[in-house]
Design brief:
It is a single-pass membrane protein. The protein is α/β, with parallel strands linked by helices and 699 residues long. It has three domains: 82-294, Ribonuclease Inhibitor (Leucine-rich repeat, LRR (right-handed beta-alpha superhelix)); 355-466, Phosphorylase Kinase, domain 1 (2-Layer Sandwich), CATH 3.30.200; 472-699, Orthogonal Bundle (Transferase(Phosphotransferase), domain 1), CATH 1.10.510. Helix 7 (491-511) runs antiparallel to helix 14, helix 10 (612-619) packs across helix 13 and helix 13 (648-667) runs antiparallel to helix 14. The relative contact order is 0.06. Bound molecules: 2-acetamido-2-deoxy-beta-D-glucopyranose (6 copies). One 2-acetamido-2-deoxy-beta-D-glucopyranose is lined by residues 254-255, 275, 277-278.
């Protein structure tokens, strides 16, 4: 390791990787004198001993730091807390000891934090809450004690939370339900107790749930919204009651371990329970029945139960018919009422009582909040109205207090231009589409205003999250928007945006009650908050697939009207094709190509037969780097000279960019059936981002 000190004279050094060698010895103190341009430091899989010099804080431009699988000891130095740009910190599989570093809360840009498999002691500090961008947190296999701080569950970006094999006590806080992007939750082999909060059912993306080896008790809650569940291990706890039957209905479940609990009654028979090798129920003395391969005693009076079941099937049918009749009656009444009150339609987009109250936001209040809809507050003119920046503080009503705490004082107010045909329909479409959807990558409607303005005309407005960084269009093509002229999106920012949008689309297509087609995905509809997290907005053209509406246009009767936006709209819509989720995927593909090539699909070079899709496809794979936005490469390659052409960093970068272009091309194919599914695109893009960040043990 001491040879690294020779590099202190390389004042432009940006990336230093000596991963997967056989380097021994301690990190030399002089490492703190490396170039302050250093962004990446990869030391993983060596035999490095000793501690990290505290002067590491000098490397203030460090973004990625990975030292997993070494023999490093001592405390994690405070200097790490000074690395304010750090996004990835992986110190796993070492021998770091002493208190858990509480200064980690200073690294507010952290995206991945792995301290797993060390000898860390003490409790998890609540300051971790400051790392609001944290997506992956691995703290397993340490000696951590105390409770899981509730504050962790305010990090809504969390995708992986792994705390396994520590000595944590207390319960799983119900705030866990705030993490609706959580994919993996592992708290196995701790000393946690109490009941599993029902709110876990809000973690819609949860795929892997490991609660095994704790003292959890009570009945296991019904988590029937978690349709994506793949693996679930709740063994070695003290769960009681019957095995929840909804587990039968989880379509993707591959592994279920219920062993060593206190479950009782009959084991369900359908779904995963059909496959005895995928489940484990041993050590529950009161269970019976189930698949014969489980070798459980037969349940008492099973025959009579069967008969009862047959009987109840008949009753069930009668019940269903009855309910359907009632529903039809109810619907006709509702329909009648709605028609009667058509003059003042008042769609309720939200059901939360607090928000119901806020529905009463008036024209006057919005007028105050936006300083009389002043041009100084005008932040955009969209297809169906104008958007103003508003300050709820200006209204000065206490009723907004609770609201303010949750959404902040600044909001965006989208006023619909009712003179323009279709605006009213667009309003209703937007309310409907967003009424029941909640996702961190969708622009949220907080409340609406359907009222009369000062001149006595109809007035309709939506109160939305304010997005401090404007829209993606302004960032990709700064000429058109003045605000961000000097800024340039980095590769990781672009990747994050692309992944965020894929998350949002996947949610709309696959996780809502009825699939929603956005119909107008394009850079100007992708909004960026102050952390540059992308939010898909402008649902003015959105459609529910189940409504039997076959076009994405504003005016359903005319097939000639414009559908979506030229350049982004799927070719089949132009030929009268039916609206489908594949239309959005086409737009997503084009969007990806635009984000990474910097070329608009309407660029003049695409006026003939060449489209952005073909342009990208023709460049694959050898010339992919030539079509990538050169300003992007300039930043990424700065400091990598010719002789370093073949370093990991460059190779990996190329691999990422080629893969991205590939996904973009696969999503924007002309033929619908050849297009990628959004779920696959999402997984691919996440994988590419992980590859770029060097996440994962095998890097
Ligand atoms: C760094 O550069 C200085 C002056 O240019 C030189 O004296 C010194 O030996 C160099 N150090 C290393 C480690 O190469
Ligand atoms: C770092 O550089 C400074 C100034 O060049 C020097 O005084 C100091 O001794 C160096 N520190 C280490 C640990 O090499
Ligand atoms: C953490 O940040 C605060 C405020 O920015 C600063 O005062 C403090 O020194 C930092 N702590 C560490 C360990 O870097
Ligand atoms: C398991 O839960 C039951 C009540 O459901 C309780 O009586 C028993 O003491 C618990 N056992 C353990 C080991 O916690
Ligand atoms: C289920 O969990 C128990 C205890 O945790 C373990 O012994 C068993 O091997 C697991 N079963 C399967 C099929 O993995
Ligand atoms: C049953 O489960 C095993 C182990 O998880 C798996 O390999 C197998 O494919 C499953 N069989 C069926 C029919 O699903």
């Amino acid at each position: 390791m001491s040879s690294l000190s020779y590099l202190t004279n390389c004042s432009f050094l940006q990336i230093l990787s000596v991963a997967k060698n056989r380097l021994t010895g301690a990190l030399p103190r002089s490492i703190t004198n490396l170039s302050t341009n250093l962004e990446g430091l990869y030391l993983s899989e060596n035999q490095i001993t000793g501690s990290i010099p505290t002067g590491i804080g000098n490397l203030f431009n460090l973004i990625y730091s990975g030292m997993p699988s070494n023999l490093m000891t001592g405390m994690i130095p405070e200097g790490i807390g000074m690395l304010s740009k750090l996004q990835v910190l992986d110190l796993s599989v070492n021998k770091f000891s002493k208190e858990f570093p509480s200064f980690i809360g200073n690294n507010t840009q952290l995206f991945v934090l792995s301290l797993a498999e060390n000898n860390l002691e003490g409790s998890i500090p609540s300051t971790l809450e400051n790392c609001q961008r944290l997506s992956q947190l691995y703290l397993g296999f340490n000696n951590l004690v105390g409770c899981i701080p509730k504050q962790i569950f305010s990090i809504t970006a969390l995708h992986v939370l792994n705390l396994e094999a520590n000595s944590l006590v207390g319960s799983l806080p119900m705030e866990v339900g705030n993490l609706n992007g959580l994919g993996i939750l592992s708290v196995s082999n701790n000393k946690l107790s109490g009941e599993i909060p029902k709110s876990l059912d809000n973690c819609l993306g949860l795929e892997n749930l490991f609660l095994n080896g704790n003292f959890f008790q009570g009945t296991f809650p019904r988590l029937s919204s978690l349709k994506g569940m793949l693996q679930m291990d709740i063994s070695r706890n003290n769960f009681s009651g019957r095995i929840p039957e909804y587990i039968e209905t989880l379509p993707y479940l591959q592994y279920l371990n219920l062993s060593y609990n206190d479950f009782e009654g009959q084991v369900p028979q359908e779904g995963i329970f059909k496959n005895a090798s995928a489940i484990s129920v041993i050590g529950n003395r009161k269970l019976c029945g189930g698949s014969p391969a489980l070798l459980l005693p037969t349940c008492p009076s099973q025959d009579s139960k069967k008969q009862r079941r047959r009987f109840s099937t008949g009753r069930m049918i009668a019940l269903i018919i009855g309910s359907v009749l009632c529903l039809i009656l109810l619907l006709s009444i509702v329909f009648y009422c709605v028609r009667k009150s058509k003059k003042h339609p008042h769609p309720h987009p939200v059901t939360d009582p607090l928000e119901e109250q806020l529905l009463k936001i008036s024209y006057g209040d919005l007028c105050k909040a936006t300083d009389g809809f002043s041009s100084a507050n005008l932040i955009g003119v969209g297809s169906y109205g104008s958007v103003y920046k508003g300050s709820l503080d200006l209204i000065g009503k206490t009723i907004y207090k609770g609201f303010l705490d949750r959404i902040g004082n600044i909001v965006a107010v989208k006023v619909l231009n009712l003179q323009r045909g279709g605006a009213s329909k667009s309003f209703i479409a937007e309310c409907k589409a967003l009424r029941n959807v909640r996702h961190r990558n969708l622009l949220k409607i907080h409340t609406i205003c359907s009222s009369i303005d000062s001149k006595g005309d109809d007035f309709k407005a939506l109160v939305l999250d304010y997005m401090a960084n404007g829209n993606l269009e302004q960032w990709l093509h700064p000429g058109s928007g003045e605000q961000h002229q000097s800024k340039n999106l980095s590769l990781i920012q672009r990747l994050n945006i692309a992944v965020d949008v894929a998350f949002a689309l996947n949610y709309l297509h696959n996780s809502c009650e009825k699939p929603i087609v956005h119909c107008d995905l394009k850079p100007s509809n992708i909004l960026l908050n102050d952390d540059m997290n992308a939010h898909v907005g402008d649902f003015g053209l959105a459609r529910f697939l189940s409504e039997g509406i076959s076009s994405c246009s504003q005016n359903h009767t005319s097939s000639r009207s414009i559908k979506g936006t030229i350049g982004y709209v799927a070719p089949e819509y132009g030929m009268g094709g039916e609206v489908s989720t594949f239309g959005d995927i086409y737009s997503y593909g084009i969007l990806l190509l635009e984000i990474f090539t910097g070329k608009k699909p309407t660029d003049e070079i695409f006026n003939g037969s060449l489209s952005l899709h073909q342009f990208a496809k023709l460049a694959l794979p050898e010339r992919a780097m030539e079509i990538v936005d050169q300003s992007l490469l300039l930043v990424e390659f700065e400091g990598l000279n010719e002789s370093q052409t073949h370093t990991n960093a460059r190779g990996r970068l190329e691999m990422c960019l080629v893969s991205i272009i590939n996904v973009g091309v696969a999503c924007s194919r002309i033929s619908i059936k050849d297009r990628m599914e959004i779920g696959d695109a999402m997984v691919e893009m996440q994988g590419i981002r992980d590859l770029y960040l060097g996440v994962g043990r095998n890097n």
